[in-house]
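Intended use. Records like the one below are meant for learning the mapping from a protein sequence to its folded structure. Do not use them to infer anything beyond what is encoded.
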Amino acid sequence: MTWNHLPTELHLAVARFLPPQDTRALSRTSRSSYTLLLPRIFSDVSISSRSALQSFVMHVPARYGALIRRLSICTKPGERALVQEVDCTEHLVAILATCSYLRSLSLSLAASLNASAITPVFATLTAVQKFEIGCWGQEETAPVSERIAVSLAASLPSLTHLTLSRITRSALHVDNCFPPDVPLVLNDHDVPSHPILGEELCIPSLLKLPTLKSLDLRDVWIDCDENMCVQGKLAQLERVSISGSMYRDGEVESKACLAWLRACGPVLRSFKTGIPLGESQPSTSLGKEWMTMEDDSITSPLPILTHFNVDAERVALDDLLPMLNVLTACEIKRITIVNAVMCAAQDAFTRECASDEFEDWQDAIEQFLTSNEWDSLKSIELNFGQGAQRVWSF
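Structure written out for the chain above:
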């Protein structure tokens, strides 16, 4: 029996195990194969550059947009491009307007967007649950404003998972005491008011999005959020990750990270950070007796956490014990400490360094366990890659 005589179910079963390039090759063997595999080919689309984006808009039929479930777009210029920063809003609108069943969207932008033109299209993406937006270029020369990122996220009616990567804060939402080396967006006053958030299109306002469950801030400057206060009904956030920024001021960033942790509300269960948390903060906890506080002068308590994840690439060993002391009242059940760079390393020298660091971290954890009694703690996992892993179970 030849391939063309096999039933459709077997064709689809085989295609399920093929990598994308082989699926495309198989679709070109016959018209029937092309028709059968078309939904699979377009279910996950990745566009790697500005020129590829323009080509997609020009040559791919608009009706194929309904087949796309996951879409990743980078607007970086070509190697020989004469103009590095080009507004790609028109092409993005053209694609997104056809993606009626899109579930996951990732944008890596080499230049900002026209918020007035693209925000209405985002409101039509009713099936998108996962959204990632970041800056491809330099924040100093081609930033992506927090006002645009927040407006787009708030326009997605079913958004549950949001990632912001190297998004630049707006001067409209930062006081005049910021450090001079921190890049800010100065020309984003034209971003229109949002139906949900109004003019408060700052990153902390994301806590008001009713459907949001997970928030990941990667390389985003948060020092200006030290005294953040989010009023009104909060999102039911279950997971938050804050990596820290290269523009950090250690003490201020630590206070800002704790402010974020307090502001996330009582539903939060998982928190990951690459920011050392200082000992100067009070460590009250939400617990079962938590109530909404109407007095903004009262410091909100820390939430009860099921999982606390430490980015050991960014957090120094000397900061581990002070960090855990700050979070004593959070009744953490599981602690995970991972150095992703060490885990990915394959060369002998880096592996040897990982082994040495692992031993130091292991000793620090042993010291913590002998000097603290956390009744809630069930496990601690330490992972620096192959041969440098350990789990403590209680």
